[in-house]
């Protein structure tokens, strides 16, 4: 059975993690995988999470199974966090999943069963796991233009021109905020235009919300998705707590569907729970319980929001410092877009050869498409990275 097997290549992000680990040079700089780091280069457990875990440890008296969709308290807390009062929560079907990737997978599994003929429209570029999961499930996919490399901003006209080709029942996959890999977000007007397009064509928006709170703030980052939810009859959502709660390895995510009414939401919730059963049975509980504990306690919520604010502001400060240093060295504002982008990522605009040169000659690790995780910068590495980028990119 296994004699002729060739292991599939891991995707580019996972390959890069491996290469970084194996690099023995001092002073190597990891701007690859999307993990938050402090100025000291650490990815600590958030204080609010530690406190919640302690509470869980003290009070939890069983590790028995919970429910196929995860704990009802977690689902309710996440509905509140993501949607506040933008839509009646009874219209939201939800199930816990192993991380945001698990949520993307479970949402697409449901689409595969309900409308296998649907095409999933993805932004060019997007996070590599989007096309990977879509093609793994055998769904059709098409790209819509998104990033304008010349301006470092949104190719608004190209995006709407491409999306004019959607058919009824197609999915339009959009990033809720902090677009991965470009760092370019939709404005509220863009979200409104997307809602109008969905209403006129019958396409269904699918929002991947992996970085809530990393852009401009929780409410600001959720505003577009909430606006859209108030406009359309149906919507799909995959959300992650990996980044904003720092719960990467605990795998905390949620798959959701906004349905036309309460009855449809109950049936859809049942479908999501059933799909969990087919794939992994019960979603992980530990991290989800920490999230639920934080969101259910005003003091812990304040502490978490404060820590999230610090992370967000740290990343923004890194962006501004790097853009300023590049402007100082190059005497041009060609890298000014770095300060205008939001979240962890920006596309630097380097070629594959330049990305390799940065890695091989300077020990600076960027994803192959030149995606840079700005959270990986520190006050010490910013001048070194800026110098290397200026040298390599001319
Ligand atoms: C990333 O884009 O680097 C992260 O979302 C990690 C991952 O799973 O790819």
In short:
The chain has 394 residues and is of the alpha/beta class. The protein has helices at 12-22, 47-59, 72-83, 99-114, 129-136, 156-163, 188-201, 218-231, 262-279, 286-295, 298-330, 337-340, 352-362, 381-393; strands at 29-30, 92-97, 119-124, 140-145, 147-148, 153-154, 171-175, 204-209, 235-240, 253-258, 345-347, 364-365, 371-373.
* Order of strands across the main sheet: 2-10-9-8-7-3-4
Distance between the termini: 52 Å
Strand content: 5-15%
Q: Quickly count the domains.
A: 2
The number of helices is 14
The class by helix and strand makeup works out as alpha/beta
Determine and state the CATH class of the largest domain: Alpha Beta
What's the CATH topology label of the largest domain? Aspartate Aminotransferase, domain 2
Order of helices and strands: HEHHEHEHEEEHEHEHEEHHHHEHEEH
Distinct bound molecules: (2S)-2-hydroxybutanedioic acid
Mean pLDDT: 97
Helix content: 40-55%
The main pleated sheet reads as: 7 strands, mixed
Report the C-alpha radius of gyration, rounded. Answer: 21 Å
| CATH superfamily placement of the largest domain | Type I PLP-dependent aspartate aminotransferase-like (Major domain)
Q: Report the CATH architecture of the largest domain.
A: 3-Layer(aba) Sandwich
Q: Strand tally, please?
A: 13
Please give a handful of descriptors for the protein shown.
Aspartate Aminotransferase, domain 2; alpha/beta; seven-stranded mixed sheet; single chain; Aspartate Aminotransferase, domain 1; 13 strands; 2 domains; binds (2S)-2-hydroxybutanedioic acid; 394 residues
